Amino acid sequence: MSDDSPDMQTGRRSFMKTVGAFGAAASVGSAATGTVAAQSGDSYRETLQAELTASDRQSRQLPEGTFAYGDSEADAIDAFSLQGDGSTTEFEVDSDRVSFTQAERVDVTAADEDDPGAVAYRGPVPDADFSEGDLLLGVAWVRSEDHDAQARAAFRYGDGEDFVDRGADVDPTGEWMRYFFPIEIGSVPDGDADPALELHLGYDEQVVEFGGVALLDYSDTDVGLSTLPPYDYAGRAEDAEWREAAQERIEEIRKTDFEVEVRNPGGQPMEDANVSVSMLDHAFDFGSAVSVEHVVGDSDDDETYRQTFLEHFNKAVVENALKYPAWEGEWDIRKEDTRATLDWLNEHDIPTRGHYLLWEQDQTDGGGGMHVDPDLSADEKREVIAEKIANHAAEFEGDIAEWDMHNHPVWQSNYRDDEDLGWDAIDEWWSVADENTDVELHTNEMGAIGGQWQRSAYSDYIAHLVENDYPIDAIGFMGHHQQRWGQLLDIEDMIAGYDEFAQYDLPMIVTEFDIEIFDRRNAQDVAVQRDYLRDFLTVAFSRELVESVMSWGFWEDDHWRPTGAYYDSDWTLREHGEEFLELIYDEWWTDELGRTDGDGVYATRGFKGDYEITAEKGNLSGETTVTIDDDTDTVVVELVPPGKQKDDKGGNGNGKGKDKGGNPWSQEGDGFPDGSDEELFNETEGDFFDETDGSFWNESETGVGN
């Protein structure tokens, strides 16, 4: 797997939608390594506390909280009861998927849509001493076999104000999924009412199961509300203001008007012909990293891997095999397998991105580097690296469509920081690359669009290249997003990032896109991952200078951050994977049917890309494959009768050809048996052609022609 982005210590139309509930093989989050709560020997609570306090949660790490419902998960189950019409049944849970062991099934027998809180699974906290501003965290695992099951969390005193800050809605599935409910206590009312965590269930008659219910009190800590899960980002709402402008830009820059002109065999316009406009591929690049082992492998998973890639992506980057340590034998990737992978991609007309020519690191600690002896003198290192760049560029000329010329130029500035190398060496290496390849040279860095901690420094670096006439052809952004680092950007901040780099008027490419979440068992993490993918792609697709988004892998078993993969280990499509496909092959896809007007023209508008366009009228039909872009005005489809073939030049020469029986025919009549000028007849097929009006028809199929 790639290790490019370190932890922040500083025919693709067809779908393979095996959509369903998250299977037992779904990825589980990082192993919890934090301090175990001393207050309880209960294994479920110890596991939960350790997970929330784990140091690998980084900016989302929580201090220890105090459990409000007794000393065990059994105490919590006992604290909850059903209010309203229905019944409850306790049962034991034995599943590797979850750490709790006891649960309760709630059978709601009467609904009240006007007051769903009239039926509630409720856990009061007797003698609670909460004050305004105190923070708590409700936790519940939920499951239901009912397709439309619904619940909503609340925390309140009696029927008073609800203090759940976000994430209150619960949409249970057939698998146990965890929900978090962050709570900020507001004004505490006078009186004897105890506060309670409630799960409102009165939306419908339904059966919902609850387990692992807990309430953690952070009143005596300095934790902030935004540190409590679940995590969100500004601009997520479906009615957010930014969406309208983005959709307008997509309509303007990603689509174009064009006409389909249908002509009969005589070359005349064909009125009222049926036209089908079917998109085959986007002009925009939606690509992915691929691994050599699965491209050349012979297992069933390897075959599925290759087929899935070809169906869903139109550009590739070989994840690790073109890095110097791999190509030079330091890593266990055979050269012949790398070559076979590039050949396979080229055979399928997949443009391939080269990763990389320059990375300012001697050895492989950061996941790549130049694989040079760190003890070389500055002059020796400068010469060796120049030779490596020249050889690497020349080695793959014709196989690579573009190069990451300078990878991690901000995060790893080791050579520029060396006073004996500095910018002079960088200048030489860019020149060497430019001299040894005819393909585009790009930069590639993280923390500018996926996160923002290096945005300003990366902009300064690009400015230096532009101002000094470096041969830079595009700006690459690594789009790695990690929940634990709070890298799901507010949408306006994301847009501001693109605005910052638009000043350089260079194409932009998202080179390594993925979204890592804490745990695929956390329902709200899964939901925010789906929505953030939708919004990230929408913003990128709406920016005129952005030309490509490259996913950094797509399968759980071959992904450096497994929770970010579009597919589970068993190839079940995850929710954000489904969103990815629906955007690209549905919302941003053109399939149109129509009829030609009196001038033989069907006018439409579609997304730019490759198309198959077919037309037919009666027994006449024709088709063409064409690229639609801003330069496209009119696409001509010429109709021919059944069995007729256009000439070897695609039917645009003299119009001569043969029927199914091998008999010659011509729009001009010079090859027909009777050689007549006005009405030509092929006795073998019974076809007539009338030069006076350009019609072509058959006695057995009247009405064919104009």
Spans of at least 5 consecutive residues with low confidence: 1-40, 647-686, 690-694, 699-706
Q: Count of DSSP helices?
A: 13
Specify Rg, calculated over alpha carbons: 32 Å
User: Might you state the CATH topology name of the domain at 43-227?
Assistant: Jelly Rolls
The fraction of residues in strands falls at 25-35%
Structural class: alpha/beta
Overall, the morphology is globular
Q: Please report the total strand number as a whole number.
A: 32
Q: Give the C-level CATH assignment of the domain at 43-227.
A: Mainly Beta
Label the CATH architecture of the domain at 43-227.
Sandwich
Tell me about the largest β-sheet: 9 strands, parallel
- Estimate percent helicity: 10-25%
Task: List the SSEs and their pairings.
Layout: H1 43-53, E1 66-67, H2 73-79, E2 81-83, E3 86-92, E4 102-108, E5 120-124, E6 135-143, E7 151-157, E8 169-170, E9 177-184, E10 195-200, E11 206-217, H3 242-253, E12 255-263, E13 274-282, E14 285-290, H4 292-296, H5 300-312, E15 316-318, H6 324-327, H7 335-347, E16 352-359, H8 378-395, E17 402-407, H9 422-436, E18 440-444, H10 455-467, E19 475-477, E20 480-482, H11 491-502, E21 508-516, H12 523-541, E22 546-551, H13 575-587, E23 591-595, E24 601-607, E25 609-617, E26 620-628, E27 634-638, E28 657-658, E29 664-665, E30 679-682, E31 687-690, E32 695-698
Helix pairs in contact: 8-9, 11-12, 12-13
